[in-house]
Amino acid sequence: MKTLSILGCGWLGRAVAAKFLNNGGWHVNGSTTRPEKCPELQNLSINPFTISLAPTPTGDNLATFFAADALLVAIPPKRKTGGSDFYLHQIKSLATHLAGTPVRRVIFVSSTSVYPELNREVFEADADPLSDLFKAEHALLESAPFKTTVLRFGGLIGPNRNPGNFLSGKTDLPGGDSPINMIHQHDCVNIIHTLVSNDVFGDVFNACADHHPTKKEFYTRASQAAGLPPPVFNGQAAPFKIVNSDKLKSRLGYEFTFGDLLDLY
Length: 265
What we know:
alpha/beta; globular; 12 strands
């Protein structure tokens, strides 16, 4: 049986774990920084570990956790801790640690925030090379002996993450006509499973729903569907980007289940 280890087994990681466990042939390890969360992971048939990046990996049974056929790194940046570049130090330290483990396949969950607001469609090559997130990606991409695939997800929505709550009731907001870049948890999970199942490693992919409604369209409809007051936009323009995911769809033959976000509401 193969092993998937999920570093940062939270909202997304638990959904990924369920996919791999339900499809058979996989044992799943999941890490949390909070020991009290371990019973929750165990109840989901996930083997729990308490691990933190401080910035080097610390915790019990690190050797067992990193004895995996594939590693999913799903740790969001926490810039309040240790300065703005602490996350970069964490990922660099992780890359150094991984070089001494059996891990040979890594998926790194990144973000479309790596792109500047260029007021146009953006592709994988348009990332800001000076951003800490880009540098973190390349700390893993350029490390040996393992291969890393970077997934640049748009804004994450799905179960227990209702976008109707994000802007509800706020007023005088700019950028109502700006397009959004989001992806549903279901598609995130299926994309990760497809990458691992087809051994697609050593590349960078954008992953956002095909349809990019305006902020006003999307958040108004999401708020109304949740029975909440919609946000009010002031008509002022704001910089934007439209994240293109054609590379992912072409390489994997992938079709988004939730390609049109407005269909959700």
